[in-house]
Amino acid sequence: MDRQVVKLAEETLARYRELNDELSEPDIYSDQKRYAEVAREHARLKRGADMCETLLSSIQEEKEARELMPSADSTEEREFYAAEAEAAEERVTDLTERVRLELIDRDPNDDKDIILEIRAGTGGDEAAIWAGELYEMYVRYAERLGFKHRMLSSSEAESGGFKEVSVEISGDGAYSVYKHEGGPHRVQRVPKTESQGRIHTSTATVAVLPAAESVDVALNQSDVEMDTYRSSGPGGQSVNTTDSAVRLTHKPTGVVVTCQNEKSQLQNKEQAMRILRSRLLEREQAEQREKEGELRQAQAGTAERSSKVRTYNFPQGRITDHRVNVTSHNLEATLGGDLEDFTRALAAQERSEKLSTGDETHQGNGAGA
Fold it and tell me: Is the full-model pTM beyond 0.70?
């Protein structure tokens, strides 16, 4: 039995019950801000609290069964209590890992909204068209899940699609759903402009950033340089006759964000600041993960798998995720936003890796009693 997990389970269950009591007080509805905070924390803890309650009950059941064994009146009764204790012990072992994964090893960003950035990679015009199709796929997935979405910034390509596009997706656990989509997505097909019917390979890269609030990132306004310019469309076509487009440069890191989708300079600045905070948060968390040596999942779209995370083969109607070796032959449905099979497989792999890492840590530290 892992005493750290047991202590955390007791504290989590106590906190969840406090929140239950607070939500049952009529006065809380007069303070909508407080109500929203309590309701959000209550919803976030519910699944973990249910696991904690079952874990603590199983620990008590095992204890009681073992205490009754010496006083059993017969061999059959002693064997019955022994079986009860063994079954409870198995539940405790399983639930301990599940509680640890839920409350200790859970990704702190899982509850956050996201900013999804898609950029055309290799392949010229075809890459930009492909970036546009990925954008549509992710927006449709959001709609299937009941998530909200809004475009934050975009740079359209003359041939269609986007050179780059940023979209905010908000909903319950949006980051937990989309976080594994980061990396290069490769498409194999015959472009419309290909006269000889040859298959071309193009790529677009996807970055999934946890949406950052002002409290998440310490951002000194004096470190941010703002430039304004006139918005323009494909081919330099004028979209706006005023300097409403905004370019923000974070001088300490060199991170640059541009926004020109809105007619108002203020709105463009607000959206650019939101993207900037999210990029800085992701950068900060990536540096922390690197220090801690926990880059397994974060490296999915960088050097470790720089070639591709997923391939979309149009001639064969096949999509393959190379990280989990999952293949679907329903290309049309996938591009229509049906990504659940991939999401589930990637989430299962993440859980398996965390449990495996946890087991190694426990064995190395001699944790448990």
Answer: no
